Amino acid sequence: MIRLIFIFCLILSSLPLTGQSGFTTIGGANFLGYSRAGVNLSGIEAIYLNQAGLSEVKNFAFDVSAEKRFNLEELTNISIAGAKTFAFGTVGVLLSNFGFTEYNEQKFGLAYARKLNRNISLGGQFDLLRYNVDKLGSKNLFSFELGMQLKLSKDFSLATHVFSPGNIEVSETTEIGTRFRLGLMYKPSEKVFLLAELDKLIYRPLEYKVAVSYQAVKELQIRLGINPSTEIYSFGILFQFQDKYKVASAIALNNNLGNSPAISLQYNH
Hints:
3 helices
C-alpha cells in the first residue's frame, strides 16, 4: 500500500496540475482561495510566492499554513514562516514539509525584502531544498528566488517573480525547473481587488489564473479564483480579529483529482 501511494505521489508530480512540487505551492489558504494567484500579495504570506511583498510587514509577523492536496494525508504540505522589519529592510525565514514518511520534500528559506521607494519593492530568498526517500537517503540542493512589486498607480500594481533560475538536477531523469510568474492587481474600490497572473514552469505549458477578493465587512474577506489551464476552481474566506490575527480557509475543486482543503493562521504585530 505504501509503495502504491509513493508511486501515485510521483505520478502526480509529473502532471501539469501538480508539477510545481511541494517547493512552490506552499502557503496554504493564503493563496489557494485565489487559485494560487499570489505574486502581487504583500505581508508575511509574500514569503511563499514573492518575497518583495515582505516589505509591507510593519514590525513582526508569523504564519502557519497547511494544505491537503486532493484530500490525501500523504500529500499534505505544512509551512511555517516568520518575518521581522528592521531599519535596513525586512528579514524572513520559512520551513515547509511536503509528503509522508517514505517520501518528502523540505524547503528552508532565508528571505530579504526592501522598498526602494514608495512604489518599488524588491525581495529575494536563498533556499535549501531537501529530498528524503526512505531506504535511498536524502539529497540537499541549493537555489534562490527573486521578486519585484511595482505600483503603477493607486489602482494598478505589477509584480514578477522567478524561482530557481537555471535548472537544478535532482537525478538523471528529474530536474527542478525555473519558474516565472507575472501578475497584475487592479483595485477598483477599497473593498474589491482583482488578480490576473501568468505562471510558466520552464518545461510545462503556460498557466493563467484570475481571482477576485471582496471585503464584505472589516472582519470578513471573500475570495474566488480560477485556473482554466488546470481546471481548478477555488473559494476562500478570511477572518480578521483586532487587526492582528487572521484565519483563512480555502478549498480548490478539481473534477478529475478531487478537492484540496487548506488553512492559514497568521499573527501581525
